[in-house]
Structure formats: C-alpha cells, structure tokens
Amino acid sequence: MSETYRTWCLHEDGSAGVSARLETRSPEASHDPGTVLIRGVCAGVNYKDALAFLNRARIVRSFPCVPGIEIAGTVENSGDPRFAPGDAVIVHGFGLGADRDGGFTQRLAVPGDFVIRLPAGLSPREAGVIGVAGYTAALAIDAMQANGLTPERGPVAVNGATGGVATLAIDMLAGLGFEVHAITRQPDDGWLRDLGAAQVLAPAQVGSRPLETAVWAGALDSLGGAALDALLRTMRQDGVIAAFGNAAGNDLATSVLPLILRGVRLLGINANSSMPLRERIWGRIGSDLKPRHTMSIGTTIPLEDLPRACETLVAGNGRGRFVLDLTGQAGATGAARADA
Question: What does the pLDDT look like over 156-199, one tens digit per residue?
Fold first, then answer.
C-alpha cells in the first residue's frame, strides 16, 4: 500500500484541552508480527465516542489518539495466519479509542487477537451499522434467553428506544417473534413500528409501591437510574431485565421485593467480553439475530461530518446509528434522522 489515508486524531493541547483534527497520513512501512492491517469500510459512532471527541468526559488516556471504539472493514495484509487479505472483519473494544488508536481512520493496525471474522452473509457495511451497539443488544438477548425468556411469556420492553442499542434490539427481538414495546420520549411517527415494535409508549409515571402492576416478561434497559427501578417494579413473575446503560444516571434506588417475591432477574451486560463469546454472538448476529432494517437504522456520514454527529448524540437528539464512511466515496445517506 502506497497511498495516503485520512484519519481523525485527538491531541492534548495543554491548557486548551483536547483538539480533534482530520489528518492525512502516510502508511507505515511494516507492522509487528501478529498484526492485522484493516482497510476501514465504516465505523459506528457511539455515545462514548462523542464524549471523547468533544472532550466532555475523560475517556482517552493516551495522546495523540485516533478516536472510535470500533471499525469494520477488510484485511489488507496480515501477520497473523488466521486472517488473509480480503477477509471481512470487525474489531470493537480492547481499549480502542481510549488506550490505543481506534476506528475513525481509513487504516488501522491491531493485534490479530482483537479481530473477529464476520460470519458469511454479513458485509462490513452491515457490520458497521450493527457494531458494538448491535453486539450489546445481541449479548443481552442471548443472556435473557438463557434465563428463560421466550415470546410466549409476554411482552418485552425496550426503553431509550431510539438509541443505537435499543433500535437494534427492537429489530432483533421482533425477528425472533417477541412482542416488543418501545418506550421513548420522542413522538411516535411510525419509525419504531417499522423496525418491529408492536407498541410505542411514553415513559409511564410509575407509583411509589415496591411492586406495581406486572406488565413485562422481559426488558432491556439502556437508561439506569429511576427508569431501571420502574422496570423492576413492573416486571411479571420470573421476568428478566438486561441492563447495559446509564444514560439516566449511575445510581439505583429500588427494593429487593421484585427480586424475592416475583423472582425478577437483573442481568448486567458488559460488551467487553471474551473472544469465544464474541465469536459465538457474532455468529448469531449473522443468523437468527441478524437485523432486518440496517438501512433504516444506520445513517452513513462522511468523515467531515463527524463533529456534527457527535454534537447531535451528546445533545440526545440522535436516532438509530451514525455510521462513519471510511471509504471516502459517500456523502450522508440513510433513513434515520439526525435531528429527530
């Protein structure tokens, strides 16, 4: 490879804080043994990425640093015998965009132990929309099913329903035959129903009793705080909640009664999981958990539009997923609105 490539990079500027620059770089002549060089196709933009990019939270620990906690693309060359040029792959987590360079770049070299080969039938562009958000959703659904959740047990609530993880979870759950109830403060314009939601609900005012009317057989919580407490108190007997977010707060003030009187199970979901689990879950994402509406969920944007996307996410006005095009061949496309 001889051509230059473009990359976003965060620089620590002393008293001025952190600045983001879109740079043009020349490729390195060689890489360490065991390293896989990925030609980026796209990278999902996550809330954590937006906080780091805008210096709204202390996430990056080593400067200069390419932001982005994920990248999907193809192998350009490999010092790891498990991968060959042309393989479709994805990398997420492992300190990308915080401890080491991340995915908002057209070329990224990573250890082979970080790389997941995409299952057959899943393209890098689809994987870019799904990304760590879809992985988190699939991991949550897998854990809930392992704890007895089936469509016959009743409806499943998904709060924060217009977020990246939530929209993909709605699509996946509906594809499995679940009755999905999407909970969101945004108006119901039909978009969540198109993804598979049977009902779109505003957040309810839940009473103060430790146990309220039992509604849900399962729930995916991306908010934490009072929203998670409300779900706990309105779960059915043996209900299952998968919690993976804290958009509404880190604290949880609740009662043990849903746990000991209704047998509610609260499952914590951490996407920084082991490689064998990642490979198994991505296998499901390529088969029974494959989203059916990636084109609606993902809004593709060029490299230059990353600052605007980050501002939109931090303001809480995003819907679905922003996906950064790394090929330099596309402008903004996709059905998901940036100003919803």
Answer: 999 999 999 999 999 999 999 999 999 999 989 999 999 999 99
**Distances, alpha carbon 91 to alpha carbons 8, 24, 154, in Å:** 17, 22, 35
Provide the mean pLDDT of the chain.
93
Model pLDDT for residues 32-87, shown as the tens digit of each residue: 889 999 999 999 999 999 999 999 988 998 899 999 999 999 999 999 999 999 99
- The pTM (predicted TM-score) of the whole model is 0.93
What type of residue sits at position 254? T
196 and 314 part of one domain: no
Cα–Cα distance, 225 to 32 (Å, whole number): 44
Alpha helices per DSSP H over the chain: 47-53, 124-146, 164-175, 191-195, 225-233, 257-261, 275-285, 294-297, 306-314
Beta bridge partners of 110: 36
**82 and 175 share one domain:** no
Residues 136 and 113 in one domain: no
Give me the number of domains the chain comprises: 2
Claim to verify: residue 21 and residue 88 sit in the same structural domain = yes
Pair 194, 75 in one domain: no
Give the residue numbers spanning the domain of 103. 5-117+293-325
SS3 333: strand
